[in-house]
Write a structure and sequence with these properties.
By secondary structure, this protein is mainly alpha-helical. It has helices spanning 3-42, 45-51, 54-71, 78-82, 85-96, 129-138. It has one domain (3-108). It is 66% helix and 0% strand.
Length: 140
């Protein structure tokens, strides 16, 4: 293969990988939206928006989704595929009642600590190492 053909194949591969990553991220994003909506229906909306971490939820959805794809056969999902949207919504809200919200709480950062006052070299300004080395090499 010549150089141009290799370059073309590499570009196609990069586009394919990029598209698959986009679809995967979009899939997790859609799942997260549906789960958050079910949780908002079960619990107070303010509580979900204020206390629930999207990062922890997305991480849990990602790892659980992969495990469920391996462990649960496709025939077990048929009842969910046959439900109407309203039936699926009420089933999700019922399942949301068993979610432990404390597991997915946001961890707010506390206030920053003040910078401590200098104890050493309080009366001396900073001298760069480059200046010290230059002075040492120029001195006889």
């Amino acid at each position: 293969m010549d150089h141009e053909a290799v370059k073309c194949v590499e570009q196609r591969t990069q586009k394919l990988v990029g598209a698959s990553l986009f679809l995967r991220a979009n899939h997790i994003s859609c799942l997260l939206s549906v789960v958050r909506a079910a949780l908002r229906m079960q619990y107070r909306r303010e509580r979900i928006e204020k206390e629930l971490s999207s990062f922890y939820m997305a991480s849990e959805l990602h790892s659980t989704h992969n495990g469920m794809r391996i462990a649960i056969p496709g025939s077990e999902w048929l009842p969910f595929q046959e439900m109407t949207p309203s039936q699926l919504g009420s089933a999700l809200v019922d399942m949301a009642a068993s979610v432990r919200l404390a597991r997915y709480r946001k961890h707010r950062r506390g206030p920053k600590r003040p910078v401590p006052l200098r104890t050493r070299f309080r009366n001396h300004s900073h001298v760069s190492t480059a200046k010290l080395l230059a002075a040492a090499t120029s001195a006889p």
